[in-house]
Amino acid sequence: MQTATVKETNMTKSRPGPAYEAERIAALYQLQILDTEPEPDFDDIVALASQICETPMSVISFTDADRSWFKAGIGTSCPGIPREVSFSSHSLDSNGMVVVNDCSDDPRFENNPLVIGEYNIRFFAGVPLVNDEGYVLGMLCVLDREPRELSVQQVANLRILGKQVITLLKLRLQIIKLKQAEEEARASEEQMNNIFHNAIDAVVVMDEHSVIQQWNPKAESIFGWKDREAIGQYFHELVIPGAYRDSHLERLKQIEAGNESTTPNKSIEISALRKNGTAFEMKLGISAAVTRGHKFFICFISDITERKEATRQLDEQKKFYESILNKLPTDIVVFDKNHKYLFVNPGAIKGEEYRKFIIGKDDFEYCEYRNRDKSLAELRRARFLEVKETKKEIRWEDTVNDPNGNPVTSLRRIFPIHDEKGELEMVIGFGLDITDRKVLEEKQTALVKQLSLQNTQLVDFCNIVSHNLRAPLVNMSMLVQFIDETEDAEEQKQLIAKLNPVVDNLHTTFNELVESIQIKQDLEVVSERISLKDCTRRILDSLDVEINKSAAVVDLQFDEAPEIYYPSKYLSSILHNLISNALKYQSPKRKPEIKVVSKRFGTDIILSVTDNGLGIDMKKHKDNIFKIGKVFHRHPNAKGFGLFMTKTQVDAMNGQIWVESKPDEGSTFFIEFKNQG
Questions:
Q1: Which of 158, 407, 568, 636 is buried most deeply by CB count within 10 Å?
Q2: What CATH number has the domain bearing residue 161?
Q3: Nearest C-alpha neighbor of 89 from the set 195, 156, 17
Q4: Is the torsion defined by CA of 226, 229, 232, 236 positive or negative?
Q5: CATH number at residue 208
Q6: How far apart are CA 68 and CA 79, in angstroms?
Q7: Cα–Cα distance measured from residue 547 to residue 541, given in angstroms and rounded to the nearest whole number
Q8: Which of 425, 417, 413, 408 is nearest to 350 (CA)?
Q9: 411 with 398: CB under 8 angstroms?
Q10: HSE of 126 in the Cβ direction (CA atoms, 13 Å)?
Q11: How many domains does the chain have?
Q12: pTM check: above 0.90
């Protein structure tokens, strides 16, 4: 028997292991063969190899990064061995069959645990399993515990069996790819079905004869026919009105022929019929396709009834608003973001020819067309750019000459319109002819100036009468009640004596008010030098009953600034309001203490009125302290007018008033009197 004498025989060319190790392992994993169950085809091959080579052991192994795993084996129950001791690992960068007659006499294997250990392997022959890319995936091996040699015929037969293993691997790979393709096709089909059934538009599939093959749920919703009713029907007979059927069929022919003018992106709007016979407007897009040699059409349909109705209403509204804008005497224009005219009404340009010309153009083009000075265009361009940059409305007056050379003054206003992203969308401009108004304004200015002071004094008179006379009248009412209730003649005499100052104060106040309203209308309110002590004493006398009733203590400190140059009626009103408020809003927990102090700061004097009353919550009321009708405590006589009137009188003389206060601690009102010398 002729034996093989070479240790390595060429079989097929392979790629070097280390350089392509990652690719080799990836190719092995692609087979999905590692750790799989035994298969008869592989078991038969190892059994046949063992018989042919007359060896007690035979295995088919596959080597990954860590091990050589046995797919099939004869003479061993071992599932695999570590890669570093595997004989097969030596073939990964080999280009042919490996035959080792005596492993103990081969430097590659003489110290291998499989040789010197309990397995006592002496003979090894292996055929590398090389795929089409040249990667060695594993090996078909025969082994023996005795040294031996293979005949030439045995080597040849072992190679044939190795090729058979490769054939099984190729078949396995084809099956894997086929399953993957089937899975991808199934997933793609499921995805398409999902899209088809959940599309927001109706999707209808027809064959080349316009017979409906598929009808999705949205088509059922739009047209009213269930899929079982629609499938098998001619699409054009089911949903297309008779007047449009011929043109629809002609369109299908053009799409099938590839006419670019009827691509699916160029949908048409056409009438359609529902199951109940009602007509509606639909948007129809059609595309042609071929699958497995069969032609068909895909229709994409949306109900545009609401959109058409909305468009119609918008058109009507546009006509309506344009009709209104065109009839307004005010000139109205609309610019795009580049200062091109979008709309001009007759109020802005009377001639229809000029209005048509200016649309889509700017002021420079219009001035050139009308042979006008371009300085006007430059001015309006500057205004436009200002609005565009600041994003705010602007107003101004400009004057131009009319065709007769007469100056015409207009009040103009332009403001920007932005989209939801804050980008400039358009600019709207208004213009109002104020030529006549300007003339009237000059005439009215003098009259307004005359009436202003008179009106101010009249308002003061009404305010002071309604407020300042209330307290003396209340005091008088209380004194009269006390006189009526007492039977003691001496006490009645004392009460009557107290009534006289109140009556005198009332008489004085009334005379001052009458005198103030009689001031000539072209004169300002007259100021005079006033003793703070005397003025305040008169106020306290008029409030004597309330002061005694509450046992209030009033402290006056005017030494630093004893006099104030001010209108007498204003100062009396201010002091009366602040002191009477201190009495009115006293704390039930303590007797009222009121301090009135004047201090000088340069040429100014600051008068302060401090109390220990209820106080004001400044966090809550700081913006409403001096507004009319604002009250801060529940009190039957609280009208919310006194502080408003006080501030008005201070403002009239260019002074300032402010307050510092804390709830349940009290308040201090400060009045600054300017230019006191």
A1: 158
A2: 3.30.450.40
A3: 17
A4: negative
A5: 3.30.450.20
A6: 9
A7: 9
A8: 408
A9: no
A10: 27
A11: 4
A12: no
Pair (130, 255) in one structural domain: no
Interatomic CA distance for residues 159 and 162, integer angstroms = 5
* For range 236-260, the mean pLDDT: 83
With cut-offs at 50, 70 and 90, classify the pLDDT of residue 518.
very low
Q: Is pLDDT at 515 greater than 50 in this prediction?
A: no
b/e per residue 362-395 (b: at least 16 CB within 10 A):
bbeebbeeeeeeeeebeebeebbeebeeeeeeee
The DSSP code sequence of 90-143 is GGTT-SEEEEES-GGG-TTTTT-HHHHSTT---EEEEEEEE-TTS-EEEEEEEE
Average pLDDT over residues 6-34: 71
Average pLDDT, integer, range 185-203:
81
Residues 625 and 651 grouped into a single domain: yes
Rounded distance between C-alpha atoms, residue 593 and residue 573, angstroms: 20
SS3 for 358-383 is HECCCHHHHHHHHCCCCHHHHHHHHH
Say if 32 falls within a structural domain: yes
**266 pLDDT more than 80:** no
The residue from 399, 433, 467 where one domain ends is 433
**pLDDT for residue 280 is more than 60:** yes
Whether residue 222 contacts residue 203, with contact meaning beta carbons closer than 8 Å, is answered with: no
In this predicted structure, what is the pLDDT of residue 505? 65
- Fill in the amino acid letter for 345: N
How far lies 200's CA from each of 206, 216, 301, 549, in Å? Answer: 19, 10, 9, 84
Place of tokens 């600041």: 390
Q: Which domain holds residue 661?
A: 451-673
Task: Write down the residue that tokens 């749920």 correspond to.
Answer: 217
Q: Give yes or no for residue 182 having a pLDDT over 50.
A: yes
Residue ending a domain, choose from 177, 211, 235: 177
